[in-house]
Amino acid sequence: MAHGYEGGRLDLPFVGICTFGKYPLQLDWEKIDADVAVLGAPFDLGTQWRTGTRTGPRAIREASTLFAFGHAGAYDHEDDVTYLAAENTRIVDIGDADIVHTDTLRSHANIEAGVRAILKAGALPVVLGGDHSINIPCINAFSEQEPIHIVQFDAHLDFVDERHGVRFGHGNPLRRAAEKDYVTGLTQLGIRNVSSTAREGYEAARAMGSDILSVRQIRKLGAEAVLARIPAGKRYYVTIDIDGFDPSIAPGTGTPSHGGFAYYEVLELLDGLTKRGTVVGVDLVEVAREYDAGGITAILAAQVLLNFIGRILHNRRA
Question: What residues form the annotated binding site?
Fold first, then answer.
């Protein structure tokens, strides 16, 4: 009995295995052959309040099947571009890094190994968190690469040096990144309200080469002026905390902060980055589906990532 149609199976979004975007699964990290490789990092032991982001990778993968475009890609009438068309899109999902409960350093090391395998294969790592501490091993994995400039979308600065002896939690990652000699600077966007970092953290961040803008400051400046502040022609690592978005559209996160970004504000900045330099790494963190019965947070995460990946690949070719 036939199991498909002429030209192959339809493999509609509600059918089959929930890999990211319904792209092929490659669990042998020695055989990654793609332009983009997606890695899950279901780690949430770095949280200071509400846990639950260990379910983030599964939630984002499931939501991403809504945007499984098949062979046609995704036509954007505003840009007059078809993004993610099958003939020029090579994306694989390489599964998750092993997470060991209560063992932060070992779990982080496993995440780092996954990102290093992607980089060794010459692919772009896209990492699904997990809490924001997973950015620490992601950045560690770039130690043998050319220098990078980090662009962060977040409500919180995440620049705590040490608190109660903790140096590798989700309040520390951008401080750990700034300490690396191969990180040439940071652009921290969306930072606002009661935050995870005290005044001295802001002073230290600026002293270590960070440019910090709130959502209100970004709206006053406009996207083009914000992009002009980011060094041109650099290799960008982009880290997106879902709480950078307003909780009205991203309630499923451990530390929601009102006054956040709308979807298109972030997409315009991401699109501009792909034209201003080279995006060499991405992580999206802090999706916790237990706090969002409607699943719109995971849908937002998947939509942001697929649109961003599509623009990265298109503007590389352009």
Answer: 132, 154, 156, 158, 241, 243
Report in angstroms the alpha-carbon separations of 125 from 52, 112, 113, 148, 175: 23, 11, 12, 14, 21
- Tell me the H-state helices in 98-162: 104-120, 135-140
CB count in 10 Å sphere of residue 64: 26
Catalogue all structural domains in the chain, each as residue range(s) with its CATH number: 20-317 (3.40.800.10)
Spatial CB neighbours of 280, under 8 Å, sequence gap ≥ 6: 124, 142, 145, 148, 235, 236, 237
Q: What phi, psi does 291 have (nearest 5°)?
A: -100, 15
Instruction: Write the pLDDT tens digit of every residue in 66-117.
Output: 998 766 889 999 999 999 998 889 999 999 999 999 999 999 999 999 999 9
The amino acid at residue 171 is: G
**What are phi and psi for residue 89, nearest 5 degrees?**
-130, 110
Judged on CB neighbours under 10 Å (0-12, 13-18, 19+), 203 is exposed
pLDDT digits (tens, 9 = 90+) for 222-281: 999 999 999 999 999 999 999 999 999 999 999 999 999 999 999 999 999 999 999 999
Whose tokens are 């939509």? That residue is 303
Q: Look at the chain and count its residues.
A: 318
Q: Residue positions in the annotated binding site for Mn(2+)? A: 132, 154, 156, 158, 241, 243
Element (H, E) at 309: helix 296-317
Phi-psi region of 250 (alpha: psi -120 to 50; beta: other; left: phi over 0): beta
